[in-house]
Amino acid sequence: MNKDFLNTIMNGDCREELKKLPDNYVSACLTDPPYNYEFIGHKWDDGEIQRRMERVKDSNTLVKNIPYGSGLAGGIRNKSWYKKNRENIVDYENWCADWAAELFRVCKPGATVLVFNSTRTVAHVQVALEKVGFYARDIIVYRRTSGIPKGINMQKKLEQKGYQDSEKFKGWHSCLRSEWEAICVLQKPLKNNYTETLLEFGTGLFYTEMDNGGFQSNILENIKRDKSQDYNVHCTVKPLELMRRLVEIFVPRIKGSIVIDPFAGSGTTLVAAKEYGIDYIGIEIEPSYIEIIERRLSEVSD
């Protein structure tokens, strides 16, 4: 086994960095790529994120920790709007397929891949990864502790416009309260069957026994949020408890197991892997985040 990559963070675009890894090398992938909020055509680095966050800092926007940027959020729903919406989706899907193709190559047969995404676009991520050879297994529901309605309150909208009888539209909104996040579960095809794949590659299975003796479901809830670390300025940090649960369920805890995160962010996947004594590889395009990852990893006892 090539050990040069183990327990390291590679700095760069994962589409290029993944090419440096050997074939059939990693046992699992847990990753949280940028969602499709007008992502295409922008350099997704810390400068871009901060620019978007500045746009909502003093606004009435309820969610201020997520980078603003979707030009598709408003506007007149005419033919041009829907055309732009569709083009954006296709571009995002193609971008996902670009990095997924290299990820497929470096995964062992039976390796499980988990990709976070929004409820609106997780289907496009699944399709992109299926195009390059992965097999769709499930969608995990990560139920957050709260959710905020982000659409139009039609009663208030009509009141602002001076319409009479606006109260008739009390309770009518343009969306539901968003309370869960999707985690797409895919797998590189097995070698003939689960038993043969397990014995040769140590992959293919999910750990389903819960602490209370129950059988693990595909809904994860009651996950506590972490206390924010002053030095961790990443805007979308996943709870460490959540990543621990995902590592426990989907990453083989055996000798030679490797988990990869091509969009390492602030390194929560890698921290969880290190806590379990599992070798990891992180890839992150933003250099300033690597300092955060290394600091967090240094706080985990070997």
From TrEMBL:
Gene Ontology MF terms: DNA binding; N-methyltransferase activity; site-specific DNA-methyltransferase (adenine-specific) activity
Annotated SUPFAM superfamilies: S-adenosyl-L-methionine-dependent methyltransferases (SSF53335)
PROSITE patterns, per database record: N6_MTASE (PS00092)
Entry's Gene Ontology cellular component terms: cytoplasm
Gene3D superfamilies according to UniProt: Vaccinia Virus protein VP39 (3.40.50.150)
Residues annotated as transmembrane: none
Gene Ontology BP annotations: methylation
Segments forming domain DNA methylase N-4/N-6: 26-294
EC main group: transferase
E.C. number: 2.1.1.-
Matching InterPro entries: DNA_methylase_N4/N6, DNA_methylase_N6_adenine_CS, RM_Methyltransferase, SAM-dependent_MTases_sf
Pfam family, one: N6_N4_Mtase
Assigned keywords, A-Z: Methyltransferase, Transferase
PANTHER family in alphabetical order: RNA METHYLASE-RELATED, TRNA (GUANINE(10)-N2)-METHYLTRANSFERASE HOMOLOG
Family the UniProt entry places it in: Belongs to the N(4)/N(6)-methyltransferase family.
Protein name as annotated: Methyltransferase
Organism: Aeromonas cavernicola
